[in-house]
Amino acid sequence: MVVLEEDPKLQSVVEKLIWQRQPFKVLEIGCGSCSHIEIPANSYIVGLDISQKQLDRNEVLNEKILADVESYDLPESEFDLIVCWWVLEHLSNPEKVLDNCRKALKKDGIMIVAIPNVMSLKGLVTKFTPHAFHVWFYKYIFGEKLAGIDDRLPFKTYLRFSISPEAIRQFAAENDLSIERLHVYENPRQKKLRSRHWLIDKGWKMMSPVVKALTFGKVDAELTDFIVVMQKKM
Q: Does the keyword Methyltransferase apply (predicted)?
């Protein structure tokens, strides 16, 4: 079983919910060049991405769709599992895509969504700083010299408030989706960055309670990202 660093329990939750449906049909939205969870070998995996280069790098897909997910109409009741991993924050209209995915799920199918937490300090900085700053940060802080080149991270980011953890809960409640897991956590990259630079770590720890107090607990300095598993009931 795959144990994901960001959420060690995610794989077991997925297996409990849909493993008995094998073989099943999977859609990876913004599939990029790799998959993030373990999927049975007898599954049929469809990948949809706006980048041909990313599709070419992905070796696990049975079917590749080159398209913009914001304008592509997915077939209704087609998929047992839809994975949307670090995608919605890059879209100008993520609510439309969420609804499109909901319609494309079969009854009792599940959707896994991984998103930065806009209601975190990192999320707000990401939202309100220009893309050029993101590229600089990846290159000189994370050490990724090819950042922003040849369809590589970081991508342009909108990170709408409509995909905050609370907004996702509301979306699920309004659309006959049950939330089977919602895991909010500190991004491993941020943890590693703090562990390598004591000054950043000290400043972050001092800032965290201040940010919470000033925003009445609405903004968290540490819980930077979240993963949610939703199951379609109707």
A: yes
